[in-house]
Amino acid sequence: MTKAPDPGTLTADPASGLEGVVAAHTGLSDVDGQNGQLVLRGKRIEGLAGNVWFEDAILHLWHSYVFCDADEIKKALGAARSAAYSSVPLIEASSGKLSIYERIQLGLAALPLDPDHPQAITISGALPVFLAAAFRVSEGEHPIAPDPNLTTAEDLLRMMGDEEPDAEHIAALDRYLVTILDHGLNASTFTARVIGSTEADMKQAVLGAMGALSGPLHGGAPGPVLDMIDAIGAPENAADWISEALKRKERLMGFGHRIYRTRDPRADVLKAGLKTLQARNPKVSLAEKIEEAALTALRKAKPDRALDTNVEFYTAVLLDAIGIDRKLFTPLFAVGRTPGWCAHVMEQQATGKLIRPASLYVGPKPA
Ligand code: ACO
Question: ipTM > 0.90?
Fold first, then answer.
């Protein structure tokens, strides 16, 4: 009889949410919480976002798994958008009770996968089409077909109903998509890797990752950030509003982070993307004043915590300045993160190993 595997002696503190536990080796992204740095396959996020197109950043991340050049990836993602449009009637016919997010998941569940074509391309191309269609259907409008010759950011704005997207809006959306492409072993990425490790197809891994992202502790902060900015309304109200909120023990949305013990580098990358939009969006200057007041108040209230601005704060400001509806913030995060999830699935599947940790039984003993 072969010996059963060792049940395992490494036990993470069950109350820690696996914090500090290394569950994968990855060459995809490095989140350095102490120094406030994010590196994607050897390149700092500041060097990528705003300097390369989303498609180029995807290709950079997929380097070891999908073999094509910059021109081919743009064409392949464009073709994948066109192919995905054949699943849109299902989104259009779906029940009005479904949320935009659920309609995207429906489209994804129905997406045909060709065994001879990289699934990562098919799925990453499909998500923007499903988001735009789900949004328009929820607004009582007909979906708009993709244009495979455009970049993802431009086509996305166009499919959402912006007939001639403004060049600055395209650039800002593209910067956002690159900024959120990948971020270590967060909850949704871990979920994708676990599902991928069972050799389930990539569609199932992305559906599961979307499930994890839907929770308010993971993907849901930018909407509330905008609610806070709207509630403050004017720079002169910021200090009092914030001080009252902290007195009520409320958390300021868009500040603090589990990993970063300094400023989230993505906050600055997105803030830089607002420069061109600031003149025509008074909310940008208001947000900057609110940020200043919040940091002053948080440093006074929590001097030991080094609380600083996180990615969600300027995500909210940037997407709002582009004119994107706040109910699209979490779905849009899924669009930007999908190629990152796919990269992790490919990396995990290359190990050929099923993820199957042990649990420690603490229940009653049999009588
Ligand atoms: N506003 C006010 N106080 C805060 C904030 C905040 N934004 N963040 C942390 N604190 C305080 C907590 O109240 C707590 O105080 P206490 O020790 O007196 O109880 C202390 O700082 C530590 O809080 P933790 O929750 O243990 O800190 P952690 O680092 O685990 O929290 C989290 C990270 C959940 C993101 C937290 O900072 C928070 O709730 N922020 C607001 C919501 C937000 O912006 N979420 C998006 C995060 S970015 C992302 O997920 C992509």
Answer: yes
Q: What is the CA(225)–ligand 1 centre distance, in A?
A: 14
Segment 76-133, tens digit of pLDDT: 999 999 999 999 999 999 988 999 999 999 999 999 999 899 999 999 999 999 999 9
The pTM (predicted TM-score) of the whole model is: 0.94
| Domains in the chain: ranges and CATH | 29-215+327-351 (1.10.580.10), 223-257+278-321 (1.10.230.10)
d(CA 237, CA 226): 15
Which has the closest alpha carbon to 127: 328, 335, 327, 325? 335
What tokens were used for 141? 């409008």
**Which residue's alpha carbon is at the smallest distance from atom 3 of ligand 1?**
251
Q: Supply the residue whose CA is at minimum distance from atom 36 of ligand 1.
A: 256
**Catalytic residue list:** 257, 312
Closest atom, ligand 1, to C-alpha of 305: 21
Smallest CA-to-CA distance from 318 within 293, 279, 283, 292 is with 283
Encoded tokens for 236 = 């002169």
User: Do 243 and 297 contact (CB within 8 A), yes or no?
Assistant: yes
